[in-house]
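lol ok so funny story. i was supposed to be doing the assay writeup but got distracted and ended up predicting the structure for this chain instead. priorities right. anyway since i did it might as well share w the group, maybe its usefull for someone
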Amino acid sequence: MTSRNFPDFYYKITKTLPWNKVLDILLIDTIILCGHANKTPEGKTIYHPDDVHDAEVQWNWIEQNLKDSKADYLLVGGHYPVYSIGFHGPIECLYTRLEPLLYRHSATAYMAGHDHSFQHIQMHKNGQNMDYIISGKGSKVNESQRHVDDVPTKSLKFFSEEKGTGGFAMFDVSGARMKIKFIDSNGVENYVYEIQPRKSE
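and the output, tada:
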């Protein structure tokens, strides 16, 4: 049975915006890609897909859709973060395999949850920025920073210190910019960041 809101495990949404701009969103299934967390005897957390074939099919779909996108804004969203300073931390499966694709095809940003906090992490490679947005405060809040040393110090642009309150991220997209806002349960903007449209190739 197909849901109207979630037509598949991973899928693409394309929206035509005012000013003749286009937004592409690739929503991916990071459980299929990386599996569930497992602990090694040494206590290290590792991720491995349950079905390698299904994971490879999705990896191919991601790469093809990133490559084909000519949108002015190209977002990718999944449950697991690529990078996080929170309780779960960075996911090796994603920073080794997904991140190079995001750079190669000039994605606008990657959106995630998993850690129950607000975070904006910006990585920089070969003259190109990549923005990682974590908005996981929809229900319970966990302000752990146990992995703060697992990302470069200057890459952390925002982390919500507020405890005990939920919130959400809002993406306000226009022809001139994409404005990302972290808004708490009282409707207060905790943080605002703007990203410009992708450059035409």
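The longest helix spans residues 52-68. The CA atoms of residues 152 and 200 lie 30 Å apart.
back to the writeup now i swear
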